[in-house]
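Section 5.1 Outputs to date
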Amino acid sequence: MNHFTKILAVLASLMFANMALAQPREGHDYQRLKQAQPVSTAKDQVEVLEAFSYACVHCANFEPVIQAWKARAPAQVKFVRLPMAGNQLWEVYARAYYAAEALGVLDKTHIPLFDAIFKQNKSYRTIEELAGFYANHGVKQADFLKVANSFGVNSKISRSKLLSARYEVDNTPTLIVAGKYKLGADAQKKIGVPEILKTLDFLVQKELLERKALLTPAAPTAAIKK
């Protein structure tokens, strides 16, 4: 190996070392859940779940970020939200989310509710007060309250509490990728929005490549000539 070739080899090794260092790291940029959770997606899809609450200002600030990410995410991504119900107030907001979903008004009320709370300084402490908010968006208060207190919504509230523990959610917003990986902001580790998005892209691509490998049939082994 001549001198020039040796220099190229050293530069190449340094480049790949830097790439490895720049890659999101398990245990730092994201955590693997102690136990992977089942997801209801097709074999070629990747679920990205956001654990959030309308009572969380960080979730309100993150909403336009995740909306922009969804717009550019691969078509195989299935994005879902999980409203947290860990205390009395958050459960009220989780009920509102599931009621709006059942009534078909979630898309037109999701961001306006964040805005009402954090931009207009509105205070909603009970499901009855929230019924007034949804009434301003075309939903009869009686209909909203009936659905919000229904068996179906009660079941989803119970499921939310169960999944919160299984997904090891300790703050919001938290993202769960493919039921396996957890990521979110961490001031001590200097992980903010840019780092979250980089890690999210990395994990989605990782899952897509793994699924593609599983779905691609193995090439036939060539017969050995005697």
